[in-house]
Structure formats: C-alpha cells, structure tokens
Amino acid sequence: MVKFNKFIAGVALFSVLLAACDTDVEHNIAQVAAPEFQTISPESSEVLSLGKHTITLTFDKNIFFASSYIDKLELTGAELVSAEVMGSSNQLIITANFPERDKECTLTIPEGVITGPNKMPVEAMTFTFKTCSLDKNPVNTLTTEAMKVYTFLQENYESKIISGMMANVAWNTEKSEQVYQWTGKYPAINCFDYVHLQSSPSNWIDYSDITPVKNWSDNGGIVSIMWHWNVPVAEGSTSYAFYAENNGFDADKALVEGSWENKVFTADLEKCAGYLKLLKDANIPVLWRPFHEASGGWFWWGKNASSEKAMWIYMFDFFKSKGLNNLIWIWTSQVGDKEWYPGDQYVDIVGCDIYNKTTAECAAQYSQIIKEFGNKIITLSECGSVGKISEQWASGGCWSWFMPWYDNDGAETLHADKAWWEDAMKQSYVITRDKLPSFK
Fold first, then answer.
1. Which pLDDT score is estimated for 7?
2. What is the pTM of this model?
3. C-alpha–C-alpha distance, residues 159 and 15, integer Å
C-alpha cells in the first residue's frame, strides 16, 4: 500500500507539473501586431524619369509576401515587372516600368497581401508617383525661325523620326545628294562642321561663304553644325589637333586668364561667333552641337567633367551675349555620364553617338539615356554601322533624328550603305526634306 500510494502521489505531482507547463506556454506567446509601414523610396508624389525604377517599401518588422501575389498589386499608368521580399526582410522590393511622360501613376496594395510573422494582415496602402514632363521652353529666347524648328522637333518627338546626314568633312551637302541618288529623297537635316576653323578663310575653306548652308536652308532643309575644335598642340605650334592624344592643350587652363590655352580658346570663340552670326543674319536656325562625346576622353575637351561643363557654360553665355539666339543647343551623352551634363538651363536636346552596335544595343542605350534625361528630346546625333532605323524604331529607339557619319571613298565597311538608307527612307514615320514645313 505504501508503494502504491507513492506511485499515485508521483502521478499526481507529474500531472500538476504538466498542467503548469501547459499554462506557461499558453500565456508566454506574445501577440505580434501587424507590420507597420515606415518609408517608401522613391517617395510618393516624387517625379520619376522614364524607364524602370525600383520601389522599396520598408516596415518596422519582417514581412511575408508571395511573389505570385504580384497580380494582386495594382499600378495604373505604368507596368509592374516584379515584386519580392529577399529572404527574411522588412522590405518589399517592387520593380516597375514607367514608359510615358506626364502620367500620374497610382500603386495600390490591398489589405492582407502583405502579412507579418504571425500572418497579421498589413492594411491597404496607396502611393502616387508622377512621371517627368518634356521641357517645353528652349534654354534661350529663340528667333522666330529657330523657334519654329524647336516646336517642330517637340511636336514630332516619339511619333516620327527625322532623317539627317553628315557633311563630307566640313562645308557641303555631297552626302545628302548621294542619299537622294539612292532613294529619291533628301534627308531633312544636313550637318556641317567647323573642323577647319583655323584655316578659314583660305582658298580651300571659307566659312564666311555660307552658300552651301543657305542653299540647304532655302530648299527647306534643317541646318545642323558641330565643331571638331582643332587647337595648337603646344604653345605657338602650327600643328593642330582635336584629339587628346599627344596634345598639350590643357582644358583645365582654357578659362585661366593669361594662359596660352585661354588666348586660343577665347580667340576661337570670337571667330566662330562671327561665322555663326552670318547664319543668324540670314535667318538660318542651327542645331548647334559643340564639345561632343566629351566623356569618352578622346578629344581635348574631354579631360574631365568640371572643365567640360565650365567651357560649355562659358560658350553658352558668350554666344548669348553676341545675340546668337538662332542656336538650339545639343549636348552629347556617351551613356552613364550625367556628371558631365552642363545642366537643364544650358541644354535643349541630348544626343548620343553610336557606332558598331546591334539594334538591341542601340535601343538599350536609348532606354538608359531617356531614363537619365527624360525631360529632354533625345536624338541619335551620330551613327555608323548600326541596326536599321526600322528595327531600332520597332525596338523602342524613338530618336528625334538619326545622323549617319559620312563614308570615305572606298571604305570597306560603310557607316550607312544604300540598303540601310533605302530601309530608312521608305518608313512612313521617317521625315524627309520634302515633308518639312516652312520655317520662314
């Protein structure tokens, strides 16, 4: 009986202990509140550039979200690409594409799509974003004719593409004539070059004779001018070059008074302004593209971003002081070089020079540039050996215009051969010279 009673007592004690353990477990589970929203980046109501953006929602504790629930999210005015929580995290990462300007885009996350550690539902949330607008006003008060060109570019951007051709070396329309012989149509734009400024005027080049430019304009064409700026390779040298290699011209000293570089820089600006004024006096608008491909580093003006921006702004202010309000200013990006950008108040159009790239590569560069400079018109300011315009357009490369570089006689690989031009000029959305309105 003693043993039995001891057994009964032991069982009773174990039962009491077990009950005590159960009670402890029941009372020690904390009720975790639903995660509370903390921040969103980019912030709601922020103006976004075009293209893909990562939207990060941060909460006060870890969250749960099934990637398959992306269909339960709503994003008006844009396209959801992905949504996920990376491992154990308090952040929801959403990738979305914002393809159109001037859109108000609303992201809605219904209640319960996101939950906490104990499946407590996160309340419904709504966020609003806006996409950027296209800058409507030029950076300078333009002449009547130049403003008509600027407005034309604005009105046709992303719905049509304008054809253009680079002059053979400097001051002629020979290559545009060749395009006409191939296709029966003239390019809408002919681009000239002040590359021989140091030799003008001479018996072989004289930029004061504006006949080639005026004839092109009088026949309804748009004029573009760039400047391969040749400088002395050393103080007092009679050898000139625009490439940086073996060139002693220091861009950092171009604006330093008293330096030989500054004397060359200011004298050349004065000379160039005089030639541009001849065009202004003839009521000829100019798509003006100086300091191109600066971030590439192969030209003397591409030493660094600070000197390039300073020289750009100095030229802009100097030409403005000379009354050159017939210029529409084009800055050239090499992609991913926004630190070289002079600023929205000094640039009307952003160009890109592309060579030896596939259609997909050209379209990818367009997408990247428009994400960085979506408030500006984007153009294919130079090209050679690239995908056909019809292919680029279909792939989303909606450039304002295209501009193949001229080909040397006998070149083995042409920048743009007859077949390339025939493809371009037969597209209904390609603007040729005969389709241009009058800018007079």
1. 44
2. 0.86
3. 82
